[in-house]
Amino acid sequence: MSILARNITKKFGSFTALDDVTVEAPSGKLVALLGPSGSGKTTLLRIIAGLEHADAGQVLFEGEDATDRSARHRNVGFVFQHYALFRHMTIFENVAFSLRVRKKPRDEVNARVHELLKLVQLDGLGKRYPAQLSGGQRQRIALARALAAQPKVLLLDEPFGALDAKVRKELRRWLRKLHDEIHVTSLFVTHDQEEALEVSDEIVIFNKGKVEQTGTPDEVYNKPANPFVLGFLGHVNIFHGRITGGQATLADGSQVKNAGGVSDGNIAAYVRPHEIDLTLEAPAEGVGTEATVLWVHRAGATIKVELEVEKTKELLVAELPREKYAELRLERGVKVWAVARDVRIFSSDYQI
Amino acid sequence: MSQQSENAQPLKVDVSESSGAMTINLAGRLDAAALPDAWTRTVVPAAKSHPARILLEVKNLDFFDGSGLGLFAELRRIAATSGGTLEFSGLDKDQKRLVDMSLLKDPAAPMLENKKPASLPAFVGLMAWTILKDQYQLIAYVGELSLAFLWALTHPHRLRKREILIIAEKAGVNALPVISLLGLLVGMILAYQMADPLRRYAAESLIPTIVSFALIRELGPLITAIIIAGRSGSAFAAEIGTMKVTEELAALKTLGLEPVRFLAVPRVLAALLVTPLLTLYNLLLGLVGACLVMVSMGYSVTYFVKTVNESIKLHDFLGGIFKSLVFALIIAGVGCLRGQQTKSGPGAVGDSTTRAVVAGIVLTIVADAIIGVIYYYLGI
Questions:
Q1: B247 and chain A: CB distance < 8 Å anywhere?
Q2: Residue A3 CA: distances (Å) to CA of A27, A32, A67, B111, B330
Q3: Which of A178, A240, A262, B165 is the most buried (most CB within 10 A)?
Q4: What's the alpha-carbon Rg for chain B, to the nearest Å?
């Protein structure tokens, strides 16, 4: 079932949490709502679930207006950041809860709960209480509970936000697999760009109550619509400069391609760390910039190098493959040339 | 330290004020030793006059340390609280760097914010609005609760009977010791307090009549209600409030249940069940207490029982029990409401329990007053 939240506006006092936001989740897709905290993504999720009321706008399920339907009549599954399991009930009863509410016969309840516990790989823990489970296990139970009444829509509010890094990674892969099995239209809120890029079919990027960009992970990462999106999806180096006569010149005097055809004026050039090449010999005149190595982070799949640009004293972060690093033999204090392979240019009136 | 202070100039402070601007000229050495004097001559007058602009001339200031920075920060705070600015003149490059690093960048930082108390009309308006909003929520909740009860009446098989009994046990059975103690003591206190004035009119024999009247019509139901408010009203608010904070309430809604039906109805029903019983028990022990006092004064138990029997009519007793039902409804309802109104944050549950107890007791006494008037005119 598709979800459409159309022209949603929500204010808390004088604070505008959502400003005329429209978000669509096509049937059977896993859509991430990504943004910094306070950007309104959780509020939107709660409005879709019926836990909050929008000041203006509509919520449609499969084209049907559900704006005035109460939460309990919307038939959505909701997974909360802090699990919200019923503490005084066993795991079995937690999962069975919505089935009992719907007066399902005992045999059916038993069968369905066992099926769900198997699905979340926690069969056999039915007699325990939530407090006796680990965070990751609790969140899986919360998911099973949300799925019990076979909701048409699954909403997850930072489902892995309270878990440690390793469990998060495991669980998000598991969530993706689960989604491929059950194909329930899902919206999930996260502030972790890595999580959104890895798991979702589509990403909606929020900032200050507005949608900045919507697209597949590939689109938003490789064709960011604006500096905010670019900056939010991973570290990025920023260089200031000017465009005159269509030619972009940065503050250190180097010239870069004006690929986007930005008009004359002040610009900011954005380069991701892995899009920077480091060389020991000076490249052609006007290409690249000279920099001194400040620090080398050797842990990880790639080597992260922090540099100081000679002319502007700005900090620059570059990432290179291990082989390349071994070849260059970089150390603190070594002078190198940094050449950007790919530069994105935006007019500087448009600040992050 | 002492070496340095010998060859540096002592601090000279010059303060002049004109048309809302204060100019402070500092020269010499500003360190911890010079600070108290500098403070009383700059910060103190500035805090009094609240200048719109403070200009610090530091050209001849040879040296300042952390205490100097502290002085600047305070001057800046004073300026900011009245919407003004602090400006420096004659800072050299290094000093400027240090000042920029140490002073708060943003004068609108929370600690610098000017928290003006609201004016009287605004304050009164705000309070009135809060009270009205609270009344609105209370009325809306009464409606919600009534609907839930209607549902409970039409679907009695869907009531969670086990849950009701568990709550009744906690709110009722477990309250017996404290109810007994208070009942006994209140009965004794009443009898003792009355003994002296009544003795002056040689009317000690009226004690059983007055005590039983006071207890059965008024004090029994009221004291029981206050205990219920303290023990159970607060517990209801805390239980439901915790569920609100952990989003279990929201989870209930998304799973297809109305929290009022699921949580408030059993609690209110349990309170309605146990409060009259506890009241009854409280009355009984109150009378026992009074009887003990009478016995100690030389009257017989038989006399006490006979007098109470003669003076108390059935409607006195039923009136008291009816009151206790009203009180139970109020206390349990308010407890559940306050629980649902819990905001987020660490202190929220505590706040709502406090609010539940206070509102429970206040509303109980208000209701008692209203019922008292009605009883009077009905001749009960």
A1: yes
A2: 7, 13, 12, 44, 42
A3: A178
A4: 34
Q: Per residue in A181-200, is it b (16+ CB within 10 Å) or e — as a string?
A: eeebbbbbbbbbbebbbebb
**Which of B70, B55, B58, B72 is closest to B29 using CA atoms?**
B58
- Chain B interface includes A51 (CB < 8 A): yes
**pLDDT at residue B379 greater than cutoff 80:** yes
> What are the CB-based long-range contacts (under 8 Å, 24+) for B149-157?
B149/B265, B149/B268, B151/B261, B152/B261, B152/B265, B152/B269
d(CA B252, CA A101): 10
Q: Is A5 helix (H, G, I), strand (E, B) or coil?
A: strand
Helix axes B301-311, B207-214, angle to 10 degrees: 50
Q: Tens digits of per-residue pLDDT, A31-66?
A: 999 999 889 999 999 999 999 999 999 999 998 999
Short-list A348, A96, A207, CA closest to B255: A96
The confidence score (pLDDT) of residue B26 equals: 86
Q: What is the mean pLDDT of chain A?
A: 89
**Mean pLDDT of the region B208-228:** 94
Which of B:300-359 have CB within 8 Å of A? none
CA gyration radius, chain A: 25
The reply to whether A71 touches chain B by the CB within 8 Å rule is yes
B255 neighbourhood in chain A, CB within 8 Å: 72, 97-98, 101, 145-146, 149
Q: In Å, how far is B265's CA from the nearest CA of chain A?
A: 16
pLDDT in tens, A101-139: 888 999 999 999 999 999 888 988 999 999 999 988 999
Euclidean distance between CA atoms B127 and A131, whole angstroms = 42
Cβ-contact B38, B13 below 8 angstroms: yes
DSSP category for residue A225: S
- In what side-by-side order are the strands of the sheet with A64-65? A15-25, A3-12, A56-61, A64-65
DSSP code of residue B233? I
The pTM is what?
0.75
How many contacts does A have with B, using Cβ atoms within 8 A? Answer: 55
What residues of A are in contact with residue B247 (Cβ under 8 Å)? 80, 82, 84
pLDDT of res. B157? 87
**Measured CA distances, A41 to A1, A18, A25, A203, B5 (Å):** 20, 8, 14, 12, 60
8 Å CB contact of B251 and A101: no
User: What is the distance between the alpha carbons of residues B334 and B228, in angstroms, rounded to a whole number?
Assistant: 12
B257 in A contact zone (CB under 8 Å) = yes
